[in-house]
Amino acid sequence: MLRLIILLLLIVCGWCPSAVYAGPIDYFDITRPKFKPLPVVISMSPANHLNGLYVQSVFQSNLEQTLFFQIFEEKSHAEKTPNSIDSPAFRMEMQILQEKPLKFLFTLYGREQETPLASGNLSEDKKTDLRQLGLQMANTFIKNSLGFKGIAESQIAYTSQKKNGRKNIMLSSYDGTNQQRFSYNLGSNNHASWAFDNQNLLYTTFTRSNVQIAIQPSKRLRASILSFPDGTQPQGGSWSPRGDSILITLMTKGNSDIYSYQLKNRKLERILAWKSLETSPSWSKDASSIVFVSDSVRFQQPQIYIHDTTKNKTRRITFRGKYNSSPRWSPDGTQILYEGKRKGYFQIFKYTLSSNRHLQLTFGRFNSEKPDWSPNGKQIVFSSKRNGLSKLFLTSVHGGRMIRLTTTPKSVVETNPVWSK
Q1: What's the whole-model pTM score?
Q2: Which own/partner contact pairs does 74-79 have at CB distance under 8 Å and 24+ positions apart?
Q3: Cβ neighbours of residue 401 under 8 Å, at least 6 residues apart?
Q4: pLDDT above 80 (res 26)
Q5: Helix (H) / strand (E) containing 138
Q6: Tens of pLDDT, residues 61-85
């Protein structure tokens, strides 16, 4: 069933110091893969204010990154062309109130409405720079136009590798304009995982002699290395919802099993120990279930399973195709993204638990792999080999138009993206 984003009466403008309330304005069906971006007209007074223009550019890049909107600058009557937008879905007005520190009034209107959906002041201070003002305005716009949380301040961790270089963990802003190297050790780093509170990341470090799991605070550059019993080799991990333990895959004598690793006392508890390879475990947000991958049915033909930890029962959820892997829970725990090989290429699929329905989201004669959810569950990030080397892309959770996340050189390989929570 199609879900409609309905703008309801009394939409609250979250953190805004002053908010204006309005009635319903429109129905926008954003679940269609061929959904056409909604036109948004933005105006600023004075029109040539440099700092204001910078805030506007940050707002625009983050709003268009959602794939739901297309931004147009308001034109005077003399400047209008046949392609000008006379009836936009939304109109955003910015009025500069103060030069230093920058302070401005924003007002958001719906289509052909005189009563604003939201209005408030934004100010530059020691904790909020000009870029932050643009991000806050983008989040406020999303909340008051489509009714769900904006993600302009989220980050995406991923693995980057230059030609003939080591793999490193990078952090990207949502709009892709800010790229920061995160891992600085001498190993090759891969398979990052965000803690549920976004305070830490864990990742796998490969050296010439061994494989290690590192945990690093998201605001610092120093990592701590976890220890494991002799004769075992960690293959990657993911966080528990409470943050006091991680799910880990340990390889022993050619067989991999899934364990829970307590961070405080370094205690290992075996969760799943089949006579096959079990990998890629991750907890649901309510910690009631674990999704993982196993080739228990046929060797080197992995399928996806869900293990209910309360009932100690496991069920298989993928049956089509010989290779299905990289499962990721949706933020609300109702759906799972995964990659599956079809007709020689990996594609992205979405599985809904309540209906047991699988929906293919990507198509084409190239690989699309390693999907992950946005924090609000409205978009996905994944890597795709569209031009020979893997690059990161964004698309709607319903499929459709796709855009590049980064603008790195062609020679840089980008894989294994994970979105902050």
Answers
A1: 0.89
A2: 74/41, 74/42, 74/43
A3: 67, 395
A4: no
A5: helix 130-145
A6: 999 999 999 999 886 434 444 445 5
